[in-house]
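4.2 Preliminary Data

To establish feasibility before requesting continued support, the project team ran the inverse folding procedure on a target of 256 residues. The structure was first converted into the token representation described in Section 3, and no sequence information of any kind was made available to the design step. The complete token record follows.
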């Protein structure tokens, strides 16, 4: 009896090892890689897609043996990429906030960086809040399906009070025009986009901190685990080598 158990166990071991070898030797599939315009992580400059997360992903693709690169990354409106990445099994969407609501929607490689979501308003409004309940009667500029929008909904903000757009730049334009009371994004994102839109950031301020979230590369939930593991291993190695820190420094002083 013990001999039979040993033989069965040995068989399982070899089958598992063989399966792992097949996965390791299997070529990387062609990914549909999508991102949005979000300075300083991913943006177009001089017709070249660049940024912290773009440059990092290009190195990741090389490390995992993919033949794809910068030219294969597509900029799309966030809502389109977010929905498509849940349908196509070879999709990669970045950078994506990993939240409890999204946990089961994707497989995750990261974290890459942490982002702080704030509510930003004109200083002239003199907005002050003693509690979350004070936020319920204002209007907000948000990006469709963005996590900042989700944070507001979680606070009890009615969707009718959200002016939903396809990009951060559009939300900021609405804030400047007085069409909304506040926008939801990090101060870093606001200041970089505002600078490109001839908006003086001195006239604005952060009035409330919504939350912080870690940003990841999101893969379809059915992506083979060996692919996700290989990307994670490559990312961990690049971070240990100082690549991510170097990219943060490279893009720290973006000019208008």
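Position-by-position output of the design step:
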């Amino acid at each position: 009896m013990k001999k039979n158990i040993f033989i069965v166990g040995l068989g399982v071991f070899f089958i598992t090892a063989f399966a792992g070898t097949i996965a390791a030797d299997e070529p990387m599939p062609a990914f549909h890689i999508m991102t949005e315009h979000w300075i300083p992580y991913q943006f177009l400059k001089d017709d070249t897609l660049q940024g912290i997360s773009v440059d990092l992903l290009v190195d990741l693709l090389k490390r995992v043996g993919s033949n794809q690169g910068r030219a294969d990354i597509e900029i799309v409106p966030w809502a389109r990429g977010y929905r498509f990445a849940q349908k196509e099994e070879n999709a990669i969407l970045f950078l994506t906030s990993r939240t409890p609501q999204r946990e089961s929607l994707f497989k995750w490689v990261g974290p890459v960086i942490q982002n702080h979501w704030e509510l930003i308003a004109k200083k002239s409004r003199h907005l002050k809040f003693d509690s979350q309940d004070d936020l319920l009667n204002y209007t907000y500029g948000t990006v469709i399906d963005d996590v900042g929008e989700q944070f507001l909904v979680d606070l009890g903000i009615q969707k009718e009070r959200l002016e939903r757009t396809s990009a951060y730049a559009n939300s900021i334009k609405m804030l400047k025009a007085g069409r909304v009371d506040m926008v939801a994004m990090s101060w870093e994102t606001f200041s970089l986009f505002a600078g490109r839109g001839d908006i003086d950031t001195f006239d604005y301020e952060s009035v409330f901190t919504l939350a912080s979230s870690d940003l990841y590369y999101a893969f379809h939930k059915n992506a083979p685990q060996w692919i996700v593991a290989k990307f994670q291993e490559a990312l961990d190695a690049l971070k240990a080598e100082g690549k991510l820190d170097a990219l943060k420094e490279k893009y720290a002083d973006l000019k208008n």
